[in-house]
Amino acid sequence: MKENGFIDFCVFAGLWAVVNNAGISFPTAPHDWLEIEDFKQMINVNLIGVVAITLSVLPLIKKAKGRVVNVASVFGRISTLGGAYCITKYGVEAFNDSLRSVCPVTTSFFKYFDISRKNWSKKLKFNAFLRYKPVLYLGVAYAFISIYLMNERYEKLLDPDLMKVVSCMEHAVAAAHPRTRYSPGWDAKFFWLPLSYMPTFISDAFVLKDAVKPKVSVL
C-alpha cells in the first residue's frame, strides 16, 4: 500500500510540514442567543482540533526540522462577533505564539461555502423565539436587523480569490526563508490589523456603527 509506505517514510525521515486550516464560522450570534453546546462545538473544531493535529505530528516535524502552518484569522486579533469564533481564533494565535517556530496565516474575508451555515440559521431563529417569547421578541427583531446590516457590510468585503490564501500556504511550506506572518487580503493588511492596534473606543465605534438599538424608554 502506498499509504503505508508513506507513513513508514515519515516515521523514518520525519514530516516536513503540517497545514491546519479546517474550521467553522457558525454559529455566530449574540451570546445570549446561543447555548453552551454551540461554544463547545466550535472550540472543539477550531481550537482543540488544531492543537490535537499539531501535537500528533510534532515529533515528526521536529525530526525533519520542518514547519507548522496554522491558519488563523483577523478575528484572533480583534473581536467583533458574538459566539465562540473570535474566542477560538484568539486561542489559535496564542498557540502559534507558544510554538514560536510556526508560520501563522492570518486571513480576512474570503468567499467560501460553509456547510453549517444554512441549517444553523434555522436553529438560531427557533432558539431565539423560544428563549425570548413575545415579551422580548421586539428586542430580538432589533438584533436580527443589526446582524443583517452587519452581514451586508461584511458581504461587500468578501474576496473570491482564494488563491491569495493558498499562495501564502505554499510559500510558508516551500520557501527557503518563510515570512514570520502572512496576512492575505487587502482588508487584513490595511484595515483589520491596523484596527486591532487602535484604542478600544475607536474599534468599538466601528463595530457598533450599524448596530440597531431601540430608543431608551423615558418614564
UniProtKB/TrEMBL annotation:
Q: Which domain of life is it from?
A: Eukaryota
User: Cross-referenced SUPFAM superfamilies, in alphabetical order?
Assistant: NAD(P)-binding Rossmann-fold domains
Question: What InterPro entries does the annotation carry?
Answer: NAD(P)-bd_dom_sf (IPR036291), Sc_DH/Rdtase_CS (IPR020904), SDR_fam (IPR002347)
Q: Which UniProt keywords apply?
A: Membrane, Oxidoreductase, Transmembrane, Transmembrane helix
| Membrane-spanning ranges | 43-61, 132-150
GO terms assigned for molecular function: oxidoreductase activity
What processes in GO biological process is this protein linked to? steroid metabolic process
Q: Which Gene3D superfamilies match?
A: NAD(P)-binding Rossmann-like Domain
> Member of which family?
Belongs to the short-chain dehydrogenases/reductases (SDR) family.
Record-given protein name: Dehydrogenase/reductase (SDR family) member 9
Organism, per UniProt?
Cyprinus carpio (Common carp)
Source lineage: Eukaryota, Metazoa, Chordata, Craniata, Vertebrata
